[in-house]
Design brief:
This protein is mostly helical and 610 residues long. It is built from eleven helices and seven strands. Helix 4 packs antiparallel against helix 5, helix 7 packs across helix 8 and helix 9 packs across helix 10.
Length: 610
C-alpha cells in the first residue's frame, strides 16, 4: 500500500507538470487576436493602396486634360496669330483699295483735264476696263478675307470655351493631387509601420524556434516520466498480487495452526494446553504489535521529506526485528513442545508453516527492496521537476509565453510583409515596362513625323528606335538592361541603319532623334542646342530641317522655359530660318582686323531683306 501511494504521488506530480505544459499551450491562444489585428492593418493598407491607385488614375486623367489644354492654348495662339495676320492683310487691302480709289480719282481728273482729241476712245475704254477689273479683284479679296475673318473669330470663341473647361478640369486635378499627397503620406506611414512589424516578427520568429525546441525537450522528458510511471504502476500491481498470494498462504498456515490446536485439544494434555495457550497469546500479542508497527511504518512512508517519519520508520524496523527474534524464540519453544508432546505429522506441518513463513518474509523483503527502488526513482523525478521549475525561473525562460507570442506575431507579419512586397515589386516592374513601351512608342511617332517633314529623299520612308531586353547570365530580376538600335524602313521592311546610310543621313537621324527625345522628356526643361546641324546635309534636307525647326518653335512658342540654341556657319540655313520668321534677331560672331572676336546682335528682318 505504501508503494502504491508513492506511485500515486508520482502520478500526481506528473499530472501537475502536464497541466502546466497544457497551460503553456493555452497561453499561446492570444496569438489569434494579434493575427486579427494584423489582418485589419493589412485591410487598411489594401484600402489605402486602392485609394492611391484611384487618385493616380485621376492624376493621369488630369495630366491628359492638361495636355489637351496646352494643345488648345497652342491652337488659340495660332488662331490669334492668324487672326492678327488676317487683320494686317485686311488693313493692307483696305489701304490698297483706298490708294487705288485715289489713283482712279486722279486718273479721272487727269483724263478730264487733257484734250480728248489727244487720246483715242479705245484707250480710254481700255483704261476703264482695267480699273474695273482691278476694283472687282480687290472686292473679291475683301469678301474672301471677310469670310476668313469671321471663321477665325468663331474658332477663337470655341477655343476660349474649351480653354475655360480645361482650366476647370485642371483645378479639379490639382485638388485631387493634394489629396494624392495626403494618401502618399499615409501609405508611407503604413509602410514604416509594416517595416517595424517585420522587424519585431523576425525577433519573435527566432524566439519561437528556440521555444519550440525547448517545448520538444519538455515533451520528451514528460513522455519519459509517463513511461516510468506506467512501469512503476505495473510493478506495483505485480507486487500487490504477490502480497495477496502471501496473505492467502498465511491464511492457510493459520488454518493449519488452528487444526493443530484442535488436535492438541483432543489429546487432552492440560499442561501442553496451558503452555500452548500462553504461547498463542504471546504470538497473538506479538502479531498485534507487528500489525501496529506495520501501520506505523506505513504511515511513516507516506511523507519521505520528513525526518521525523524517517526516524519512526527506523524505530519500527528495529522493533520489527526484535519481534521477529522473539517470534523465533517462541517458535523454538513451540517446536520443543511439539517434540515433547506431538507426533511426526504435527512436526511436518509445523516445518511447512515455518517454510511458508520464511517465504512470506522473503516476499516482504522483496517488496521492501522494490519500495526502496521506487523511493529512489521518486527522488530522482522530484529532483528533475525541481530542476525544470528552477530552469523555468531563469532569465532565459522567464516570460517565455509572452516572448513566444511576440515572436509568433513577428513571424506571421514578416510572411505577410514579404508577400506584400513581392506584389508591390511585380506591380512596379509591370508599370515600368508599360511606361518604357509607351515612351518608346511616343518617341517613334515623333521621329516618324519629323523624318517625313525634314527628309526629302525617296529611299527611306521613316526611321525608328527598337529596344530589346538583355538576356543571359548578366540579366537578373533586379538588374534589367535594354539594347537600343536605330532602324530605317522602306515599306514594311526594317533595316539596321549602321553601315547602310550616308553621313548626311546619320547627322539628320541624330538631329531627329534628339528633337524627339527633347519633345518627349524635356517639357519642363525646354533647352535644346544644335551645333552645326547642317553638316553633310544637301540643300533639300537643309530646307526640311529649317521647316521642322520652325514648326517646333511654333509649337513651343506658347510655353515657358523653352530655348533653342543654333550654332552654324551656314548663312543660307540662317536665311531660310529668317524667311520662316522663327525669331526676331540673332547673334553674329566674326573677327575684326586685329583678330579679336566680335559679337554683334542683328535683326532677322534685315537679313531677310538683304
Amino acid at each position: 500500500q505504501a508503494s502504491l501511494e508513492e506511485h500515486k504521488f508520482v502520478a500526481a506530480k506528473c499530472s501537475s507538470l502536464y497541466a502546466a505544459v497544457k497551460d503553456l499551450h493555452t497561453a499561446m491562444q492570444p496569438l489569434n487576436e494579434i493575427n486579427t489585428e494584423i489582418s485589419g492593418i493589412e485591410t487598411d493598407i489594401v484600402e489605402h493602396t486602392q485609394s492611391t491607385a484611384d487618385i493616380r488614375k485621376k492624376l493621369v486623367t488630369a495630366d491628359a486634360q492638361e495636355k489637351d489644354s496646352d494643345r488648345t492654348c497652342k491652337a488659340m495662339s495660332t488662331l490669334i496669330r492668324e487672326l492678327h495676320e488676317a487683320n494686317l492683310r485686311w488693313q493692307n487691302l483696305t489701304k490698297r483699295s483706298a490708294e487705288v480709289a485715289e489713283k482712279k480719282r486722279r486718273q479721272s481728273q487727269s483724263l478730264m483735264s487733257v484734250d480728248l482729241g489727244s487720246r483715242s476712245y479705245d484707250d480710254l475704254e481700255q483704261a476703264q476696263r482695267s480699273n474695273n477689273e482691278l476694283k472687282d479683284e480687290l472686292q473679291a479679296k475683301k469678301d474672301r478675307l471677310t469670310v476668313e475673318l469671321n471663321n477665325l473669330t468663331n474658332r477663337l470663341g470655341n477655343l476660349r470655351l474649351l480653354l475655360s473647361e480645361s482650366e476647370k478640369a485642371l483645378s479639379e486635378a490639382k485638388v485631387d493631387g493634394a489629396r494624392h499627397g495626403e494618401l502618399e503620406g499615409a501609405v508611407t506611414k503604413l509602410q514604416a509601420r509594416t517595416q517595424e512589424i517585420d522587424q519585431r516578427k523576425a525577433v519573435l520568429h527566432r524566439e519561437l524556434e528556440q521555444l519550440a525546441r525547448e517545448m520538444k525537450e519538455k515533451k520528451l522528458v514528460l513522455n519519459d516520466m509517463k513511461n516510468a510511471l506506467a512501469q512503476a504502476e505495473d510493478l506495483s500491481h505485480g507486487k500487490l498480487s504477490m502480497i495477496r498470494r502471501d496473505v492467502e498462504e498465511f491464511e492457510k498456515i493459520t488454518e493449519s495452526l488452528e487444526d493443530i490446536d484442535k488436535r492438541l485439544a483432543q489429546a487432552d494434555l492440560p499442561t501442553v494446553d496451558r503452555q500452548m495457550e500462553e504461547k498463542n497469546r504471546a504470538i497473538q500479542a506479538k502479531e498485534e504489535e507487528v500489525k501496529g508497527l506495520v501501520g506505523v511504518i506505513t504511515i511513516s512512508t507516506t511523507d519521505l521529506a520528513s525526518q521525523e517519519h524517517t526516524r519512526k520508520n527506523m524505530q519500527g524496523n528495529l522493533a520489527l526485528r526484535r519481534l521477529i527474534v522473539d517470534l523465533d524464540v517462541q517458535r523454538a519453544q513451540l517446536r520443543e513442545l511439539v517434540q515433547q508432546h506431538g507426533g511426526e505429522d504435527f512436526a511436518n506441518r509445523l516445518r511447512d508453516a515455518e517454510r511458508d513463513m520464511q517465504r512470506c518474509q522473503r516476499s516482504q523483503q522483496t517488496l521492501s527492496n522494490a519500495r526502496d527502488v521506487l523511493k529512489g526513482k521518486l527522488e530522482v523525478y522530484s529532483n528533475q521537476v525541481a530542476d525544470l521549475k528552477a530552469k523555468l525561473n531563469t532569465p532565459l525562460y522567464r516570460g517565455i509565453e509572452e516572448r513566444h507570442r511576440r515572436k509568433n506575431i513577428e513571424y506571421e507579419t514578416t510572411n505577410l510583409a514579404i508577400a506584400d512586397l513581392d506584389s508591390y515589386y511585380n506591380a512596379l516592374d509591370k508599370a515600368l515596362q508599360n511606361f518604357h513601351t509607351l515612351k518608346i512608342r511616343e518617341i517613334n511617332k515623333i521621329i516618324r513625323e519629323l523624318w517625313q517633314l525634314i527628309y526629302k529623299g525617296q529611299d527611306i520612308d521613316s526611321i525608328e528606335i527598337e529596344s530589346g531586353q538583355e538576356e543571359g547570365a548578366a540579366a537578373t530580376k533586379t538588374t534589367r538592361s535594354y539594347n537600343y538600335r536605330v532602324v530605317m524602313r522602306k515599306g514594311d521592311i526594317p533595316l539596321d541603319m549602321r553601315g547602310r546610310c550616308s553621313a548626311g543621313q546619320k547627322v539628320l537621324a541624330a538631329i531627329v532623334i534628339r528633337l524627339a527625345l527633347a519633345e518627349t522628356f524635356c517639357l519642363n526643361c525646354g533647352m535644346l542646342a544644335l551645333d552645326e546641324p547642317t553638316t553633310n546635309l544637301d540643300a533639300a534636307n537643309i530646307h526640311g530641317l529649317a521647316e521642322a525647326l520652325a514648326a517646333l518653335i511654333e509649337q513651343r512658342r506658347g510655353r515657358s522655359r523653352f530655348q533653342l540654341i543654333l550654332i552654324t556657319h551656314d548663312e543660307d540655313f540662317v536665311d531660310q530660318l529668317a524667311r520662316l520668321q522663327v525669331c526676331d534677331w540673332y547673334y553674329h560672331i566674326q573677327k575684326d582686323e586685329q583678330g579679336c572676336s566680335k559679337i554683334e546682335r542683328r535683326d532677322m528682318k534685315l537679313l531677310h531683306g538683304a
